[in-house]
Amino acid sequence: MNPVEVKKRICEGRKKIEIKLIEKEENRQVCFSKRRQGLFKKASELSILCGAEVAAVVFSPAGKPYFFGNPSVDHVLRRFLSNISGPSDTLSPATTNCAELVNHDQLVQKPFWWDIDLHSMGVDELREYEKFLLEQQTVVTQAAQQCCFEAPEAAMEQIDALPHTSPELGEADYFLWLLQEIMDSPDIDPI
Amino acid sequence: MNPVEVKKRICEGRKKIEIKLIEKEENRQVCFSKRRQGLFKKASELSILCGAEVAAVVFSPAGKPYFFGNPSVDHVLRRFLSNISGPSDTLSPATTNCAELVNHDQLVQKPFWWDIDLHSMGVDELREYEKFLLEQQTVVTQAAQQCCFEAPEAAMEQIDALPHTSPELGEADYFLWLLQEIMDSPDIDPI
DNA sequence: ATGACTATAATTAGTTT
DNA sequence: TAAACTAATTATAGTCA
């Protein structure tokens, strides 16, 4: 067998695929994982390059939630929902109809559960909550170290590319991200 | 000038760019338009190929909203928001303590088992919840893995990378699309 | 602003380990 | 089960019509 044939056999490269539901469950799962990462990366690049606010929410076929947001999912969705349901000086009739048809009453008025009112906490509660977050951060850090064998550079690039993993992350999204991390890393022994 | 040089001048091809805010306003605008389309196309392909539910919301730097959703933005955001903020028939967030949560069967069946009002927790409850959170990691993940794939309704042919521009558009998304159109055409007097 | 073009960068389907 | 690999496909920065 000549070298060309050998190389051919080793890897046929990417094949053009039709955009329709992938039949084989295993392939579908792998594809979902790869493309979800790709989608979030694209979303991140768009927000950074163009200064845009982007939110992406994905449910896997199994019902697992994934999300990306810059500056945060909470921020973008709030803006979006207020846009389509809130009163507007210039778009009043249209938005009124929109609010009626979409029936966003629950959607808009219900407070997000992560709107934790820090001011209402006592000192002890605040300290405890802070401790709680720090401990959770340790878990996530360990998980990341165990799960990610990438070069530090690549890891840092990835972290930079995903704003919800940055230290500047708001409290609300940090917690969401943390839960996502935990659910994504079942094999990690916490603390 | 020889042909090679001419060809060079005509198109230098794509250049590698650093992921940071594009300084020149015009370039940023063009990039936004192109990449927004690319993002929505990726989102569409992900939902079709893998039977996933995907929503993406983008605000341009000028504040114009764009969105993509399969089966609809409304559907995905409702699912997302209800899962993270919605009440449970059996779990009362304000009064549920961790002991009750631990023993609750539904907990492992719901992907959003963290449907808990942290704000209402005292120190002890927070600590207990932390412990519970970590202990239940494996259980929850296993439960998630056991979830059966839903009938992939998303397999149905998607009209386009931008379904909200289609006539078959659902009522809710039609209004969202309408709003988008209106905001894209400030010169047109919105009804 | 909008679309077409081109060459390069980036993504990813299939394979191997 | 997952990670690395390879190469074909896809996305897109820059340019021009």
Q: Biggest interface and its residues per chain? A: A-B, 82 and 88 residues
Count, helices of chain A: 8
Total E-strand runs of chain A: 2
Question: What string gives the helices and strands of chain A in order?
Answer: HHEEHHHHHH
Fraction in beta strands of chain A: 5-15%
Whole-angstrom Rg of chain A? 22 Å
How are strands sequenced across the largest beta sheet of chain A? 1-2
Low-confidence stretches of chain A: 1-5, 85-122, 136-172, 185-191
The description of the largest β-sheet of chain A is: 2 strands, antiparallel
Main location (chains A, B): nucleus
GO biological process, one term (chains A, B): positive regulation of transcription by RNA polymerase II
Organism (chains A, B): Dendrobium chrysotoxum
Domain MADS-box (chains A, B): 12-72
Written account of the structure:
The structure is a homodimer of 191-residue chains. By secondary structure, chain A is mainly alpha-helical. The longest helix of chain A has 26 residues, at 25-50. Chain A is 59% helix and 7% strand. Chain A has helices at 3-10, 25-50, 73-85, 92-102, 105-109, 123-147, 152-161, 171-184, and strands at residues 53-59, 65-70. Chains A and B meet through helix 2, strand 1, helix 3, helix 4 and helix 6 of A and helix 2, strand 1, helix 3, helix 6 and helix 7 of B. Chain B binds a DNA duplex (17 and 17 nucleotides) through residues 7, 9-17, 27, 29-31, 33-35, 38, 41-42.
Provide the fold topology.
The structure is a homodimer of 191-residue chains.
Chain A: H1 3-10, H2 25-50, E1 53-59, E2 65-70, H3 73-85, H4 92-102, H5 105-109, H6 123-147, H7 152-161, H8 171-184
Antiparallel strand pairs in A: 1-2
Helix pairs in contact in A: 6-8
The structure holds a DNA duplex (17 and 17 nucleotides).
